[in-house]
């Protein structure tokens, strides 16, 4: 799996926004970690036991307490404000683009079954067809996945797309994304779902629109032949 600065390669439209927030949090927490560790070492050295030095009690500093409480609070609120727009774009009520390609993805022990709309472009009609452990989509085309589970809680996770969502029995979740590069990526189940959890892997194949249209036509033809 290719990596970019410690993260899997970014292959969706909102991956850059998520990565930006991630690195921002990483830098902030990294600076806080260094400051705290340096302070601990400094206090250990400065106030170490020495012959003739008597220990004494100090209540502390109200000013210091206000500062180390207020600064993290401001940082956390700021990060929340910055992430709100990203979250709204990805998971907001009206965030799914109207032209998104619908695909139904059912998780079960231990596989993924993707149901595609046929020529009519709608799910739940007679020309739908299902592929096992294969999510095939066109590049630069929004895709909305209708995520369900047959048995236990699973978790749909494509690291390169920065997409992760639980599949809960009895519920349907909508997850959308838009791939920005062609290639083959892995779908992982990020929830411990049983003894065969380690085997629950599938593929996302991203193709050019022309290649996808050809693949879709071939699958539709196979569906027609099989139904005769």
At a glance:
The protein is of the alpha+beta class. It has helices at 15-46, 62-91, 209-227, and strands at residues 3-4, 7-8, 101-108, 111-116, 129-132, 134-138, 143-149, 154-158, 163-167, 173-177, 183-189, 201-207.
Q: Count helical runs.
A: 3
Residue-averaged pLDDT: 90
Tell me, briefly, the overall form.
elongated
- By secondary-structure content and strand pairing, the structural class works out as alpha+beta
User: If strands are numbered along the chain, what order do they take across the biggest sheet?
Assistant: 5-4-3-7-10
Alpha-carbon distance between the termini? 42 Å
Residue stretches low in confidence (pLDDT < 50, at least 5 long) are none
Main attributes of the structure:
about 230 residues; alpha+beta; five-stranded mixed beta sheet; 3 helices; 12 strands; about 35% helix; elongated
How would you describe what is shown here?
This protein is of the alpha+beta class and 228 residues long. 36% of the residues lie in helices and 28% in strands. It has 3 helices and 12 strands, in the order E-E-H-H-E-E-E-E-E-E-E-E-E-E-H. Helix 1 packs antiparallel against helix 2. The longest helix is centred in the N-terminal third of the chain and has 32 residues.
């Amino acid at each position: 799996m290719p990596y970019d600065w410690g993260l899997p390669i970014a292959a969706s439209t909102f991956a850059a926004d998520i990565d930006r927030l991630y690195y921002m949090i990483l830098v902030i927490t990294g600076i806080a970690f260094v400051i705290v560790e340096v302070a601990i070492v400094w206090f250990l050295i400065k106030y170490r036991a020495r012959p003739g030095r008597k220990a004494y009690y100090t209540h502390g500093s109200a000013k210091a307490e206000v500062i180390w409480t207020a600064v993290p609070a401001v940082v956390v609120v700021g990060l929340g404000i910055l992430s709100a727009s990203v979250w709204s774009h990805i998971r907001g009520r009206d965030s799914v683009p109207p032209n998104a390609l619908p695909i139904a993805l059912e998780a079960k022990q231990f596989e993924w079954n993707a149901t595609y709309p046929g020529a009519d472009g709608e799910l739940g009609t007679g020309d739908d067809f299902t592929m096992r452990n294969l999510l095939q989509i066109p590049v630069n085309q929004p895709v909305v996945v209708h995520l369900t589970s047959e048995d236990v809680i699973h978790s749909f996770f494509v690291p390169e797309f920065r997409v992760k969502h639980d599949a809960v029995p009895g519920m349907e979740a909508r997850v959308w994304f838009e791939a920005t590069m062609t290639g083959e990526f892995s779908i992982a189940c990020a929830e411990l779902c049983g003894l065969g959890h380690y085997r629950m892997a599938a593929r996302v194949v991203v193709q050019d629109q022309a290649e996808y249209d050809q693949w879709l036509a071939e699958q539709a033809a196979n569906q027609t032949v099989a139904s005769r």
